[in-house]
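Look over this record before class:
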Amino acid sequence: MKTLLVVDDEVGITEALNDLLSEEGFHVLVAGNGREALARMAEQRPDLILLDYMMPVMDGRELLLALQAGTAHRDIPVLMMSAVPRTSLPPDCQPGHFLRKPFTIDRLLAEVIRLVGRGSP
């Protein structure tokens, strides 16, 4: 079973993504900001991080930079999700994968499956 870490400060989004992705056979971890995400990753290594850009405490940019700076989690794919256009992100915040909010469920699932495959068969 593939493990996904959803990092977003909007509870409605994390609950919806948790329900949707769990139904698709993924094990879902949730964090409300980058600092919580690092704590979750210390407990269990995700196969993919779905990362919001704008959050309190430690935002998506700061978490992405922390992941890139270390060696333990550098190889985990990150799918950044934001209402901010990718072209508006700072030069030091260039995730490998990007999904513009709002997005459709089908688009999100297609990206997740493209990056890590399907959940449980």
